[in-house]
User: Fold these one by one.
Assistant:
Number 1:
Amino acid sequence: MKNLLSMKDLTIDEISAILDRAAMLKRYGIRALPQKYMVSNLFFEPSTRTKMSFEVAERKLGLETIPFEANSSSAVKGETLYDTLRTLEEIGLDAVVIRHPEEGYYEDLVGKMNMAIINGGDGSGQHPTQSLLDLFTIKETLGGFKGLNVLIAGDISHSRVAKSNADALVKLGANVKFLCPPEWAGDFPSVSDWDEVIYTSDVVMLLRVQHERHDGKMRFTKEEYHEKYGLTVEREREMKPGSIIMHPAPVNRDVEIAGSLVECSRSMIYKQVENGVYIRAAILETILQKEELAWERSSRVHMF
């Protein structure tokens, strides 16, 4: 795998290999790679979890992380993303992690450079590393995907997480449903009544309302949205035994999810954050190392 751009590009075997590698790193610890690589994280949109977990993974792998700040780079002078990346490639970088507001920004870059590209989120398009950590958390908690009922609720049409997870979960055999205001469904069939889905869902995945992509046009107050479309305390009580709550964060407490549920016994929200480091380390290893590490070959186990 040279790049990681979209969950649509990954086969079931490739997904399984990354999940297995992440499980191994979580069991045995993340080790420094035997060869030095240079990487940089290019975030043109705000981020806490994705950016920081990549940085932690990179340090644990012994990578040389070259700082990049979008607001002080030549991008503010009009330099194209392609020219920025060609510059970084020519000065010796092996890989970049990019978050960009333009959906599909990578389409014009593929095949034009040798440096690896990892998509850290593109507009309302894809977020493959978040999807992989979500899959890892589901598999670690529930054991697999086939036949699982997964509900994704929230700002579907603007969510790269929803699109990435829908692609992957259906591919892996899960049943995926969507709950949102009708005008936020995009191309996905959706419901707007919790009673249709709450009793049968194994996974309830909440999404943040992305105000920055709505041009300030909202027909709900926060209280109205929570009452009609949020996971309230009352709805959580109706969830089936053993089902889990997920959220890619940042969380708007008492909007898409009641604040008291963020750290309840069903919630995997902070487990997702923890697992993000292992998944992102596994992705970096997979892309930077063309062959399996010797220690991994000698101790390969399937964690799930």
Note: The domain at 128-271 is CATH 3.40.50.1370 (Rossmann fold).
Number 2:
Amino acid sequence: MVDQLSEIFELVEVRGLLSGGFATRGPWVASGAVETPLKFFAMVSGRARVRTDGVDEPIELQPGDVAILNNRSWLHAEGGTGDGPPREISPEEGFPSPHLSGADFGTDDVLIGGRIDLNPTGDALLLQALPPLAHVRGSGVSATNLRGGIYRLFEEVRQDRMGSAFAVRQHCQLLLLEVLRAYVDQTELPPGWLKALADERLRPALDLMHADPGKPWGLEELAQAAAMSRTTFAERFRTAAGTPPLTYLHRWRILLAQRALRDGDTRVGSLATELGYASESAFSTAFKREVGESPLRYRQRIRDEPRARTDRQRA
């Protein structure tokens, strides 16, 4: 069986990067601008209320919960109990942190956060699949691994053992996977690729398209694989994915082409044949219609970007 979620994770080069956090007790408040498209917060212990622009009601974070901000501009969080005005908290950046190392789960509110980095392809996919403020609960039966992932990640941060920087990066990757798994189980997903991947009845057809994207799949074959009539299959697929099956296949081919052009030196003609296009010109036309530039121009621009970034940093 093709593991489509793993395949997409690799394709969009998703990376979770932990940036900081805090441990405090008593009333507190933390506010600030959000400078990255996708930012996440994990509640290790205690409770917090989080609000952001474009969302009417705050969400209540409990231990094991994760919040993901999708293209938001500001964040306001508050928590703690006790008398007196709330204390302004500024999350500490970088690790190790003496405050986090001395956190007490019995009395402290402990929150860690970071950002989710994606390549341009991933931006379009994941930003489309998530609401402005996604709340993933750690209390559900299906979220056992999510809760465990948060605690394992925090322990690596707190203990600062040999190799902890590497371990934190790996735990952060796994945490993102568990966040998406729990989110799929807990939420009525909007139409898109994530909802399509979560639909068990569509999986046989998706397996075929992902395993052999260059084959000229027809609606009849895909419907038979899913054990549905053509009409039922087409309607269910469009409802889940937001696009017809063959449009999904076309976009999947273009995503694969973008990866091949970024990472290798495959000739455009060979890539066109591999992905099922009748000719190099047919592929180039389809690619430009979807991406906005020709395959060769895309390859050159993507490869020039790191060099241009380095030049700006040196200037």
Note: The chain has two domains: 4-186, 195-304.
Number 3:
Amino acid sequence: MITRKSKREIEQMQAAGDVLVACHKAIAGMIKPGVTTMEINNFVEEFLAERGATPEQKGYNGYPYAICASINDEICHGFPREEQLKDGDIVTIDMVVNLNGGLADSAWTYAVGEVDGVGKRLMEVTKSALYKGIEQAQVGKRIGDIGHAIQTYAEAEGFSVVRDFTGHGIGPTIHEDPHIPHFGLPNKGLRLKEGMVITIEPMINEGSWESQMDENNWTARTIDKGRSAQYEHTIVITKNGPLLTTDQDKE
């Protein structure tokens, strides 16, 4: 079932988004060679607890951590670990914050030290693809318009779009209807309505778009060891255009 959020619910989700944004900005200052993603996970646990928030994905379908931390060829749902990040890695930190029942979901890919030119371009194109999709998140537009904008842009830049994982509705639980593919045809799919809250979260690969699952049954990685990047925002569909509850650049 697709729910349209009330003003009060959107305010709660924005408050959660504010905490999530502050957490991502703190993480950005931590990312460097030698840091472990488990250290980042533990930092997030403490950061949220100090602000009266909780990591919503911890325990979700048995997921054991506060964040997902996906390195290089890992597409999504990478487990935090004690392995140190190396110069030239890229790492995606994805988290869902619950503050008093309001949810916010955002992933961000970070460069570790000095990343090569292709890696930098992969990150730039993925972030730009996210905003191409957000431009289509308008009352009266269709879900296919979002995916088409992302796919045509990313593929024209020489990259591929992951098909196996999508954006989604959010609130009151992490994953709600509708699914938001990052590929597709314009003027197709469900029509967007005021009050809907969705995530757009393109995962873009430097090689093939296809994925394979690790033995932990959570972590997806590319089939060809090519790197993958992801950027994600939580977005409210409003009559005045898309409202990003996880916007890191409001100022």
Note: The helical segments are 7-28, 37-50, 117-135, 143-156.
